Amino acid sequence: xxxNILALALKELLAxxxxxxxxxxxxxxxxxxxxxxxxxxxxxxxxxALAIYDEDGGAPARELVARFEGxxxxxxxxxxxxxxxxxxxIDNRQVLLVLHIAPRFTSDLLRGxxxxxxxxxxxxxxxxATIALNYVRTIVTDYNETxxxxxxxxxPPVRLEIRPWYNANLESRWFIVPxxxxxxxxxxxxxxxxxxxxxxxxxxxxxxxxxxxLRPVEILIGKSVPGLLIGSLQGSxxxxxxxxxxxxxxxxxxxxxxxxxGLFLLSAVxxxxxxxxxxxxxxxxxxxxxxxxxxxxxxxxxxxxxxxMPAAVQLLTYVDPLRYFLIVLxxxxxxxxxxxLLFDQYWPMAVIGxxxxxxxxxxxxxxxx
Amino acid sequence: MRLRGMVxxxxxxxxxxxxxxxxxxxxxxxxxxxxxxxxxxDATHVPLALVVEAxxxxxxxxxASFEHSEYFSPQRFASIQEAQQALAQRRVDGILWLRSDxxxxxxxxxxxxxxxxxxxxxxxxxxxxxGYIQGAWQTWLLSYAASQGQQLKLPAAxxxxxxxxxxxxxxxxxxxxxxAVIMTLIGALLTALVVAREWERGTMExxxxxxxxxxxxxxxxxxxxxxxxxxxxLLTVxxxxxxxxxxxxxxxxxxxxASAIFMxxxxxxxxxxxxxxxxxxxxxxxxxxxxxxxxxxxxxFIFDIGSMPWPIQLITHVVPARYFVxxxxxxxxxxxxxxxxxxxxxxxxxMMLIFFAILWRKARKRLE
Lengths: 369, 368
Known about the structure:
The complex is a heterodimer. Helices cover 67% and strands 9% of the residues of chain A. Chain A is built from 15 helices and five strands. Chain A has helices spanning 2-17, 20-40, 59-70, 86-91, 105-110, 126-151, 172-194, 196-203, 205-211, 216-245, 254-278, 282-298, 311-316, 321-335, 339-366; strands at residues 48-54, 74-79, 97-101, 115-122, 158-165. Chain A has a four-stranded mixed beta sheet with strand order 2-1-3-4. By secondary structure, chain B is of the alpha/beta class. Chain B has two domains: 2-39 and 169-362, no CATH class; 46-147, abc type-2 transporter like fold, CATH 3.40.1710. Classes of the chains: A alpha/beta, B alpha/beta. Strand 5 (158-165) of chain A pairs parallel with strand 4 (112-119) of chain B.
């Protein structure tokens, strides 16, 4: 029994690694993507193009402008002096926002009133606009506090002391990079498994495999091994790059991380084999892998939070193994979670893994052409 | 004549194998529904823990501004320890902590400190939540000043005007971007396997001994898939407008023209992968790796390109979806702004020419 499985697993691995091109696609692109996406996928705003329209020109206005110039979130592209210049700049995406200081800003301020500042933003990318608006508010709030303290105005009756836990500087890279570990592990594992049965079906060798003394369980295990092996090697490599390359802290237990990864790989391999045994041609296998992968990524909470989805869609996320693995990854990397806190994430992945593998094994025999 | 035969053969192959039809029509609908409803950056009802150590009229007025906001769904906790435990277990996303000396500070006219602890794991969401909390705080400051018979005078008062999307609905900018992601998928997936399949099955060699020219083979493969892809594209646009209520402020014909160019780029990319890879396995892997994820992450569809480090920004220039996302977001939300549409369309045209030129060189009628 063990010998049979080993022989089949070895054959599967050879089929994958024999060809130079397929060897390359398993290793090269995932690492390249980790690096590119790790740097690219950020919600932090750097050097957002800003135009300043200062109609006042007084010292307090210049002080406010200086704060914007000094911020690394904004980059002053142009100073304008006319209303008509605002629209073309925003329309043509030359700037993301225009800071407009009203003509009587200084005199209003000196009279003890409020000086008016208008911010005009390009809402075509509303997320970037929201982030920019938050930065603007932070800068202006700081300015107000300093000004009030200097001029002896009363401080606001209540002040907020905001402290983010786990990620004190709110670096979105710390959130995204552990997510990429899950994302790329899923992609590689699915690619390896989704075409494995379909390829044999297309070539006609699967029928031959079925008439050998190998039992379906043995075929199942033999076909799973390469996916598990390559997935875990790839995953480990990506974790190393995340910790040593991107400097994301790994605060929890590595053991708990690997338990999560093992269960996740089991479910990914199960889904991949299920898709593969459902399809007759490689094109169908690839399409099936895609039809699973794209929603699995979207609904996992990788880029946008699950809590923002409508209730019906949230239900759908419960069958997405990546959802659980992302919580495990972020929990262990940033929050330093232990086994007990993660148990609720472990068992659903185990259930998905076992049921999809069972379905795949059943399909081996019952879907014949 | 030969071309017509080739087109006919490809069309029949498409019709016989339902998976191509599924890619072109079922996938866009499924994806758009999933993305359209699934991808949202607008948080409402953020679970927030309220810890009030000494409740009285002042704390009640302060917490009321959080309890009446649709952005939060507050839960009360008796002590800060319990609230912190809830935060660690991910039951709440933030804590608002009013210490026992809140009212004393307030009455003495000193700034009363309120502790705010956020779960910063999702940094973007953390920042958005922090913005909401500050908003509720400012609302309270205004009403408190009014109740004391004063007027709150902040030195600089910010007034915001967001053009094209005043309500900052994230769906309005995500759905046009999705059209680009989905079309990249359709175009590249449709054609990624078609040439590789002929090589693998040996029918490419059979085609070679016929008088058909290589250009005719490629064109014959391109045309049916172009029609199919444009059908999927029209479906996606129709759904964006009628199902998701995204405004289409620009010209429909301009959108169609830009989409046709983009479709050719995507199909060309798929054909190129297919021609170079020669095996369906490799072609499939490459198609997944170089189309979907870059279109998702490097196109400016969710993540702002201007904030990426410059080497990555350079890379985004070879992602065709980048140009199409810019065109789509402008045409849908802002209208016909020629400077944006023309420069990006020119970039797409250039990419199309480059892809087809490479394809022309690589796809020689010869055996190796």
